Amino acid sequence: MATRRYELNAPAVIGEIVDGEVMVMNLRDGIYYSVAGAGAAAWPALTGRCAVDDIAAAIAAASGAPLATVVAGLARFVQRLVAEAILRPASDDLSPAVPQLVDSGGYRDFIIERFDDMRAMLILDPVHEVGEFGWPQQSEPKPR
Amino acid sequence: MTAERDALTRDAIRALSSRLDMAAARVPTVAQRYRIAGACVAIRTTRDSGAQRLLTACAPLRTGDDDAAPAELDLYVWNGATDGVALPESDVLRRTNAPEDGLGGFSDAASNAFYQPDAGVLSILDIARHRAHWWLDDIATVPYYERAAPFRHILQWWIASPGGALLHSAAIGCADAADRRGVLISGPSGSGKSSTALACLAEGFGFASDDYVLVGAEQSPSVHLAYSTAKVLRASLDRHRAYAAQFRNLANTDEKPMMFVHEFAPHSVRTSFSPIALVMPRVAHASRTHFVPISPATMLRALAPSSVLLFPLAGGRAFKRMARLCASLPCYRAELADDPRDVARAFGELLGEPAFTQASAVA
Is B320 touching A (CB cutoff 8 A)? Predict the structure, then answer.
């Protein structure tokens, strides 16, 4: 577990932290995500190739939550991010230290919301295959 | 495999650029200068190509030919039907290396190209050489949306390169042109951006966009007009009947009715302003339009998906700018009433317009 490290699946996936929440977008399939709670706290370290066990320990220390709770939550979270092709295994052998986490005043679960309302539009050429509402309102289903 | 594919695509883009550069050296062109996002852009066309009819949307950005500033971008507009500039066989044009589920095209720090086969439009930007080519198979038959927002892919690469972004947003400014403040109105199509901008225009506000707008890279954001175009849904024409005489393409029933604001309200056009707020509109059929504060993250979710996925080839770079923008400004959701005058009233209050400031619309 300690050696498990990940990185952002760039350049297809991009993510930005705003106001304690992470917005993640997959430019390849048009799906985007909101990551919040402990997920947002873990995001810089997770995408920064830090070891998963180190991240769990840092979150537990910063939030006061039981380590076992954090480890289980983080494992599920990472599994989901990998399944969604947001993260991939780290491509190097470095193991950077976990950055200082902000004490958010208590433990909040690893929250991830998935939005696929834009996906249908990405498979279209958005500048012409549009209907009355214009892009990104799809006019007709396109046979694939 | 991806690196190999990217290298092939870069080579193909270089070959296309080279062919068009040779045309630029061989074919006489005339330059007209524009100020786009504060920078001087020389748009070069052949004298008889008919390209001018595609540049109407940019007319408010035209500067005099005595503008002595050096051009930061030379943008060549080619008409394949009349200029004698044919494109060679190319993987870019065949979209050979485009992902099956992607748009087709390529963009990195050095090479940017996108080909729209159905429209017959190729956009290429060479950042290092400050040169772009916008090649159209036949200007006479180019789809109307190219007239509505010409060379937008080139613009989005160019503005994203130093850290700015092309936003899928409407933008309105204060009624007094000397008051250089305004509001960005962002959300997906159908959320009320155009209707809000036109409601405000009708009440004398400044207009900077109903669909695409440029934001600079600087810490204190500046918003810049890209096009003076306004488009509405054909189904909503009755609501916009005050503009009936201004629409250019009502006879073409498969096109969104389109007009150029500078042609009938030149004093209302704002080419740049400082945004004081980001607003996500919602057609709420409210009895009175009002604003509800929302978090920067919620605003980013309204702004970024359509802005980034609309132009995914520069998405990563532009996304950072959008995130900074949302974090730096107050963000609101506008619960819109059906009455356009009430919508304008609320935005007037938000902007502190003297005619509207009797009561605050902010919840």
Answer: yes
